[in-house]
């Protein structure tokens, strides 16, 4: 198995200073113009390193952008005659049904990506459904064939999304943020290319693109180390409580977004601008090692942006259409990245099935969004404009209350988001590492570790080598040494062995299995 590695240049001491964000000109010259040239050189070196890292990422890892572009072929260009709002509701309803079905049958179907039956069914559903939609829209126009195609394609996409969730659940948060943001940017670029294509070309890509994304997720999983791949269930998936807090947040914002806008709006400059702004912010934040960017940044931006976007579409507020579209897509894009980060990080840390938690979350998300659309479409027919405006205000207040309540009870990478582990369940071989991750979360909170430091501590606890940690977190050697030094100082330890002993203390696994070998396997 091949682990994707970043450019070796950013590991060397020569480029480390520029990549770590430390002052490159400090104390190295007397003349101000020399300092300026050194800072400029360091900045250029940092950008070159960032571009090399992006260039080294396999295109297969960005397949989420492919299926996002595929979605746009049907619903965002007005190229397919007869497709309307009700059709989109059918499509998303099918995603919800399949997501729930796979979530509650997870112990029989995971790992989903390598399940031959699931892969064939997904491919047939995606391609067959797309072909039926094309056939009915351009030839038959019966309506029934189109609905069957929408149901098939939606169900196939539900399965494909959960395969990608398995991929993201096998990565540390920084890689999830980088790959997901880049994938969204790729999807955005393809959408803009599609805007200049006629209907026959869009019909062709509507049939081909889902197969490309399916092949990409399977290729991506095969590139990961064996230890990081999802495993089969040993017993019922009752080994952990469901992380309901992020789902509550996502549901509140998704309902508001659904209520505030219908899904059939044509793509415009504002949509692309909003998406690019937040994805570029995330990519630069991850690769530049900026102190202002960490796991919390996406969390802290996602919900305020969503609330602002919702207020902009309210009749009593209103806004320029480009500004409104930019805010809406920026907010929802950041929201979806936040959700992917939280759930994939729960899978990565605690070993909880990505199919289970993402299947339930996706099912709830799409049903809630349909409810928002339905209310948005029917309310103006039943109520006066003043009542509609009042409901907008009420929904905005609910969003704010939910965000504030959850934000002050769960925040940071160490947050458990309602997850609790208990005996008698989980994934084969993963329960001990799950308890270890829970212990690391507790220690990080107790000792005030920064999100970056906690990420390093999680990898140290997993027995990752320094070179592996550098590659996983896109940090230079000197930066990693500084993080480890800060961790040791805050925890009052002086070596890895002392660190391991500290993590073993008061571990739940001592009580459950009477020893520490399951918590920190020696390797």
Layout: helices, strands, pairs:
Blueprint: H1 13-20, H2 32-56, H3 63-75, H4 85-104, H5 106-109, H6 116-140, H7 144-168, H8 173-194, H9 199-222, H10 244-260, H11 269-288, H12 295-313, H13 321-350, H14 354-382, H15 385-407, H16 431-446, H17 451-461, H18 466-473, H19 477-491, H20 496-504, H21 508-513
Helix pairs in contact: 1-2, 3-8, 3-9, 4-7, 4-14, 6-7, 6-9, 7-9, 7-14, 8-11, 8-13, 10-12, 10-13, 10-14, 10-15, 11-13, 12-13, 12-15, 16-17, 17-19
Overview features:
523 residues, WH-like_DNA-bd_sf, 2 domains, 21 helices, Sig_transdc_resp-reg_C-effctor, Growth Hormone, Chain: A, Arc Repressor Mutant, subunit A, disordered C terminus, globular
Provide an overview of this structure.
This protein is an all-alpha fold. The chain folds into 2 domains: 59-372 and 382-407, MFS general substrate transporter like domains (Growth Hormone, Chain: A); 431-513, Winged helix-like DNA-binding domain superfamily/Winged helix DNA-binding domain (Arc Repressor Mutant, subunit A), CATH 1.10.10.10. It has helices spanning 13-20, 32-56, 63-75, 85-104, 106-109, 116-140, 144-168, 173-194, 199-222, 244-260, 269-288, 295-313, 321-350, 354-382, 385-407, 431-446, 451-461, 466-473, 477-491, 496-504, 508-513. Helix 3 (63-75) runs antiparallel to helix 9 (199-222), helix 8 (173-194) packs antiparallel against helix 11 and helix 10 (244-260) packs parallel to helix 14 (354-382). The chain is globular and about 70 Å long. The chain starts with 12 loop residues before the first helix and ends in a 10-residue tail after the last helix.
């Amino acid at each position: 198995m091949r682990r994707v590695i970043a450019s070796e240049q950013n590991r060397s001491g020569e480029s480390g200073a520029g990549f770590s964000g430390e002052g490159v000109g400090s104390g190295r010259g007397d003349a101000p113009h020399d300092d300026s040239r050194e800072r400029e050189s360091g900045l250029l070196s940092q950008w070159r390193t960032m571009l090399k890292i992006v260039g080294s990422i396999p295109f297969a890892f960005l397949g989420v952008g492919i299926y996002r572009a595929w979605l746009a072929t049907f619903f965002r260009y007005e190229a397919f005659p007869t497709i309307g709002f009700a059709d989109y509701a059918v499509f998303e309803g099918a995603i919800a049904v399949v997501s729930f079905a796979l979530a509650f049958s997870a112990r029989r179907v995971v790992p989903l990506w390598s399940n031959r039956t699931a892969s064939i069914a997904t491919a047939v559903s995606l391609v067959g459904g797309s072909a039926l939609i094309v056939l009915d829209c351009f030839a038959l126009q019966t309506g029934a064939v189109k609905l069957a195609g929408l149901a098939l394609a939606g169900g196939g996409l539900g399965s494909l999304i959960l395969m990608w969730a398995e991929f993201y659940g096998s990565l540390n948060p920084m890689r999830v943020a980088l790959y997901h943001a880049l994938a969204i940017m790729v999807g955005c670029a393809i959408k803009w290319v599609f805007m200049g294509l006629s209907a026959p070309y869009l019909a062709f890509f509507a049939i081909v693109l889902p197969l490309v994304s399916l092949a990409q997720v399977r290729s991506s999983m095969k590139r990961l180390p064996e230890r990081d791949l999802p495993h089969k269930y040993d017993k019922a998936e009752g080994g952990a409580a469901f992380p309901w807090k992020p789902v509550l947040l996502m549901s509140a914002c998704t309902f508001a977004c659904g209520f505030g806008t219908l899904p059939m709006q044509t793509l415009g400059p504002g949509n692309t601008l909003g998406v690019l702004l937040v994805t570029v912010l995330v990519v630069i934040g991850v690769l530049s090692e900026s102190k202002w960017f960490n796991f919390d940044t996406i969390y802290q931006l996602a919900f305020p942006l969503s609330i602002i976007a919702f207020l902009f579409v309210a009749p009593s507020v209103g806004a320029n259409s480009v500004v409104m579209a930019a805010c809406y897509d920026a907010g929802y894009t950041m929201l979806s990245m936040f959700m992917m980060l939280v759930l994939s990080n729960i899978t990565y840390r605690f070993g909880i099935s990505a199919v289970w938690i993402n299947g339930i979350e996706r099912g709830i998300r799409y049903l809630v969004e349909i409810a928002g659309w339905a209310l948005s479409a029917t309310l103006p027919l039943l109520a006066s404009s003043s009542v509609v405006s009042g409901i907008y205000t009420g929904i905005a207040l609910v969003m704010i209350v939910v965000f504030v309540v959850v934000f002050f009870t769960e925040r940071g990478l160490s947050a458990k988001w309602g997850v609790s582990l208990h005996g008698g369940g989980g994934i084969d071989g993963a329960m001990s590492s799950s308890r270890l991750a829970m212990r690391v979360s507790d220690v990080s909170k107790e000792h005030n570790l920064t999100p970056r430091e906690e990420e390093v501590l999680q990898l140290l606890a997993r027995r990752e080598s320094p070179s592996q940690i550098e590659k996983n977190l896109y940090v230079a050697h000197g930066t990693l040494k500084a993080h480890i030094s800060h961790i040791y100082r805050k925890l009052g330890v002086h070596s890895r062995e002392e660190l391991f002993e500290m993590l073993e203390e008061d571990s739940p696994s001592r009580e459950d299995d009477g020893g520490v070998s399951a918590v920190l396997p020696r390797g």
